[in-house]
Write a structure and sequence with these properties.
169 residues, 7 helices, mainly alpha
Length: 169
């Protein structure tokens, strides 16, 4: 039998269908508290990418290696260079060199107001820029339907005829 890699193990624990709602809520509350502390640190060191092995970073942020893998899974889409999470081990070198705007938008998309609302963002992105990014992300999931052409409206092809006598036939 093949052994699970760290990412599969993390996902198995984090998304365990056999736990009660209370256990699920407690697990994620504890994780989000740790995640917030890591983000506070890496945002406060803006411009200096945090690097190290999974084990070193887990020790640095006072968490288990599996929890650090979960953090890496969450931030991976926001990194300038993705880490190889499918083959990650405790001794794998990882980098937390993130793209400011991508990270902020991904936090908004995840509805993680405890993260995109951190005061550390004040030194990285202006308030106006954060508002623009927030709005862009919120609108990215909005479907806008174009106005339907009525049968008596001018034809959109530019012929000058009514739609019903032109392209609407």
């Amino acid at each position: 039998m093949a052994t699970k890699n760290l990412l599969e193990t993390w996902r198995g624990i984090a998304y365990n269908q056999e736990q009660t709602q209370k256990q699920y809520d407690e697990f994620w509350a504890a994780y989000f508290a740790q995640e917030k502390e890591v983000y506070k640190d890496i945002l406060s060191k803006h411009g200096t990418p945090v690097t190290g092995t999974v084990e070193e970073l887990a020790k640095k942020y006072n968490m288990e290696a599996l929890t650090m893998v979960g953090f890496l899974d969450g931030i991976d889409e926001s990194l300038k260079k993705s880490n190889d999470l499918e083959n990650i081990t405790e001794t794998s070198e990882v980098s937390l060199d993130y793209d400011d705007e991508k990270l902020y938008k991904n936090m908004v998309a995840a509805r993680a107001d405890w993260l995109y609302g951190l005061e550390e963002w004040n030194d990285i992105l202006s308030e106006d820029k954060r508002k623009v990014l927030y709005k862009e992300e919120k609108l990215s999931g909005t479907v806008v339907k174009e106005k339907k052409v009525g049968r008596n409206d001018p034809c959109p092809c530019g012929s000058g005829k009514k739609y019903k006598y032109c392209c609407g036939r």
